[in-house]
Amino acid sequence: MDQSQVAALESKHAQLEALIDEEEHRPHPDDIRLHELKKEKLKVKDEMVGH
Q1: What is the Cα–Cα distance from 49 to 41, expressed in whole angstroms?
Q2: pLDDT at 51 > cutoff 90
Q3: Which Pfam families does the UniProt record give (predicted)?
Q4: How many structural domains compose the chain?
């Protein structure tokens, strides 16, 4: 994995983290959306660590 791929994954990870934070601070968070976002964030992290 080259540096640009790592940077893209890091960017996606940061975007997902921001979306999760935003959703968690809404008056009525969507638990299903939060679950999906967290699952996607873990997948991205696994890609970063695994390669």
Answers
A1: 12
A2: no
A3: DUF465
A4: 1
